[in-house]
Amino acid sequence: ASPTSLLECLAMTLSVPVSASSNAGEPLLAVRDLHVAYGGIQAVKRLDMVLHPGELVSLIGANGAGKTTTLKAICGLLKPQSGEVRYQGQSLLGQGPWDLVSQGLVMVPEGRGIFARMTIDENLRMGAYLRKDGEVEADLAAVYQRFPRLKERHKQLAGTLSGGEQQMLAMGRALLARPKLLLLDEPSMGLSPIMVDLIFEVVRDVSQQGVTVLLVEQNAHRALELADRAYVLDSGECVLEGPARELLGNPQVQAAYLGG
Ligand code: ATP
Known about the structure:
The protein is of the alpha/beta class. The chain contains eleven helices and ten strands.
């Protein structure tokens, strides 16, 4: 049967590798004793983190806590000082972002990273650049169905879009890579409340279809409501971790991150 939506496509592709590689309980991503520095600035230290297939995990913390640095180290944009990042049981050491995208590890960066002088359509197709299957057009149609605003403007230059539309575009482009693990860096930043709702709804749907998600958010309340589990970073170190619901009720988290 031909898939009718991008999410169905994602679910279909995911069901194969996830079950095929299932040494029961093996994490999709495992970060062990990660240290990352910028010259003399120690941005991340002693970080351990695991994501199991299908989980939606949030990484929260104040400005400068090391959240973006962690994502960049996972996806090969920054070289760690020490520690290990394993994805699907393999070390990612020495692999660049392109290698990882073709293995389904896809990041939507803070600030969205869209190609401003390219059209919406061209930007979306860039997401599928490394794919060799014949289902790109169907996935593109599904993205346009999910984001009608992008469809209406498909020939418009991406640099002319509003912040919310650019975030939709960045998410759509990531979905066109058929991710297994989606790293999202502050997707709600600078957006209107309606756009924030829409973007979080997309994150939830994508997760429910089986994509594993690591969500970095300053909007800790929304992130904890959405996630299965969460890690709290403070000055580069993990100070708390656990089920997101428990962290939502934790007085320490409420005082520091939820305005409680
Ligand atoms: P924010 O929510 O403000 O983006 P963050 O939790 O994502 O914060 P990072 O951007 O990872 O934090 O920054 C962690 C630390 O590393 C901060 O002290 C920051 O100033 C520093 N840092 C980040 N990028 C660089 C860089 N390119 N050069 C030097 N220091 C950096």
